[in-house]
Each structure stands twice: as structure tokens, then as C-alpha cells.
Design brief:
This protein has about 180 residues and is α/β, with parallel strands linked by helices. About 30% of the residues lie in helices and about 20% in strands. It has helices at about 10-20, 30-40, 50-60, 95-105, 145-150, 165-175; strands at about 5, 45, 65, 85-90, 115-120, 135-140, 155, 180. The chain has a 5-stranded parallel sheet with strand order 6-5-4-7-8. Strands 1-2-3 form a 3-stranded parallel sheet, covered by helices on one side. The radius of gyration is 19 Å and the shape is globular. The termini are far apart.
């Protein structure tokens, strides 16, 4: 049987990035350990070019498939005034840390601007005790397209992790400007 592994991030790169930020990762792999795991598959699929290049070095180009994130980009005029800011996130610890940092250090500075922060996704589970009338936690929504249409600007305040931040690509694909870290 021919076997494939579809990667989202190289775990060894994510692990190294987490360590550099003092964050423990549940999966601790060195690059050589990960290479050994990938060698057990016939093909490795990568969605990020730099990871594809790394896996090609490990396994050879003939065993690697580059399948970048497909985007159906929408054209949308940038709104002159920002009144609604959005954030789409899972409850992954890097998202939680980033939003906590944003709410504690950045959000107070925006109070005079009369803006509302709309937070979409399961990240709400980590903020059940947070109360600010300018922050609305929507949880999971049925229509993500409508959610993107309802905001003027997206944020992605994630400080650590590895690989491509799909939420950034997604915001840009919906034609929504985004302010992000690194």
C-alpha cells in the first residue's frame, strides 16, 4: 500500500519555536526524530514552501508533494472607519495567550476609539470570566463568511507557534485587512 502523511506544521520546528518562548509542547520531537517518522511514509504532503523544502532535503524531492493553501480570494473595499475588529481562533494555547496579551496590553489603549472586538471560535471557552461590553464572544458560528463581512479589521495576536497562520491567509482571502504579530 502507498502511504501519505499530510503535514500542517513540522512538529520539530513548532517544538523549537515553543521552547524559544518558554512554552511546553505536548509533542517534543527533534528534527531527526521527525525525519525518521516521515521516512516511514511513501510521500509527505506539505502546505508551506519552507517546510516542503526542508522535507525534500530529508527525504528527496521525489517523495514530497507541495500543496499550498487554496484560496478563493474576495475583493472588498477597505472601510474608511474601523468600528468592528474581529478575531477567529480555536482554544489552542497560543491563541489564548495571544488574545490575553492583546486584551491586557493593547485593548485598553483602544478604548477612546469606540470600537468593538468580535471573537469567533472555540477560544471563548478560555474567556468565560472575562467581561467587557466592548468584547463580544460569538463562539462557533454557522456562517463564517458573514462574520468576516461584519468586521472592518481582523487581528491575529499570536506570538508563538510554527508555520503558516491560516487565520491570516483566510482574513486576506476575505479581503479584510489584518494586524498581526511577527
Amino acid at each position: 500500500a502507498v502511504t501519505f502523511v499530510d503535514t500542517h506544521d513540522l512538529i520539530s520546528a513548532r517544538y523549537a519555536k515553543h521552547l524559544s518562548h518558554g512554552v511546553d509542547d505536548a509533542i517534543a520531537l527533534t528534527a531527526m526524530e521527525e525525519k525518521g517518522i516521515l521516512e516511514s511514509f511513501n510521500y509527505t504532503i506539505c502546505i508551506q514552501k519552507h517546510e516542503y523544502q526542508q522535507v525534500c532535503k530529508w527525504l528527496g524531492r521525489e517523495r514530497c508533494i507541495y500543496a499550498p493553501h487554496a484560496i478563493d480570494a474576495k475583493v472588498r473595499l477597505v472601510r474608511e472607519k474601523v468600528t468592528n475588529i474581529g478575531f477567529v481562533a480555536s482554544a489552542w494555547h497560543a491563541n489564548v495567550y495571544g488574545l490575553k496579551h492583546f486584551l491586557n496590553h493593547i485593548w485598553p489603549e483602544l478604548k477612546s476609539l469606540n470600537v468593538t472586538l468580535h471573537v469567533f471560535g472555540l477560544i471563548f471557552q478560555s474567556f468565560k470570566t472575562y467581561h467587557d461590553e466592548r468584547v463580544i464572544f460569538h463562539g462557533l458560528v454557522d456562517d463564517l463568511i458573514a462574520s468576516y463581512a461584519s468586521v472592518d479589521l481582523m487581528i491575529n495576536p499570536v506570538y508563538y507557534g510554527a508555520g503558516m497562520k491560516v487565520k491570516t491567509i483566510e482574513a486576506l482571502a476575505f479581503g479584510v485587512p489584518i494586524v498581526t504579530t511577527m
